[in-house]
Design a protein that fits this description.
Chain lengths: ~110, ~110
């Protein structure tokens, strides 16, 4: 039973345009959300996070939006660059005595020059 | 600052053999986590150490897996005896504080059980 779902296995975007990656979760106890980026043969690299008390967090070209009522978050990358091509994982934790991250299956982003 | 390191990067063993994976966290990080990604599936939590103590081992699949962190520095994950379904990539992560700090991941060890 997947608690974090990334329903799009892949996404292709033209360089310079916006990339939107989506993530849904089912566990109401999740209160901290993260996006990781992963290149082949490397470990996941932290990108950006958001606490459940916020609905938006921005860091340079990356913005994460959280809609708690819909149990949905999204990562926006503007403008997209070829170096952004990677697998993006959405992750969540509850922090309620357990700090394990629950991951989605990932979305492979390809930014076309 | 050196990142999380893992050894070996790849391991190929036969079913029934024993394998030990090692993780060196970022210096000063008390929290160390093991995760596993089986082919085609999501990255799944295995366990969490705070210094040398097991804080949460709810993700460990069965008693063929043994994790240790003697002295609260590096950690080992032993699989004995290995089964075919243990194949996957084993990631280690560390953080300074479990709640507020990001977990930083190592490059992973790819384990193949034949």
């Amino acid at each position: 039973d997947q608690q974090v779902k990334q329903n799009s296995p892949s996404l292709s975007v033209q360089e310079g345009r916006i990339s939107i990656l989506n993530c849904d979760y089912t566990n109401s106890m999740f209160d901290y959300f993260l996006w990781y980026k992963k290149y082949p043969a490397e470990g996941p690299t932290f990108l950006i996070s958001i606490s459940s008390i916020k609905d938006k967090n921005e860091d340079g070209r990356f913005t994460v939006f959280l809609n708690k009522s819909a149990k949905h978050l999204s990562l926006h990358i503007v403008p997209s660059q070829p170096g952004d091509s990677a697998v993006y994982f959405c992750a969540a934790s509850s922090g309620a005595g357990s700090y394990q991250l629950t991951f989605g299956k990932g979305t492979k982003l390809s930014v076309i020059p | 600052e050196a990142g999380v390191t893992q050894f070996p990067s790849h391991s190929v063993i036969e079913k029934g053999q024993t394998v030990t994976l090692r993780c060196d966290p970022i210096s000063g990080h008390d929290n160390l986590y093991w995760y596993r990604r089986v082919m085609g599936k999501e990255i799944k939590f295995l366990l969490h150490f705070v210094k040398e103590s097991k804080q949460d081992e709810s993700g460990m699949p069965n008693n063929r897996f043994l994790a240790e962190r003697t002295g609260g520095t590096y950690s080992t994950l032993k699989v004995q005896p290995a089964e075919l379904e243990d194949s996957g990539v084993y990631f280690c992560a560390s953080s300074q504080h479990p709640v507020t700090d990001t977990q930083y991941f190592g490059p992973g060890t790819r384990l193949t059980v034949l």
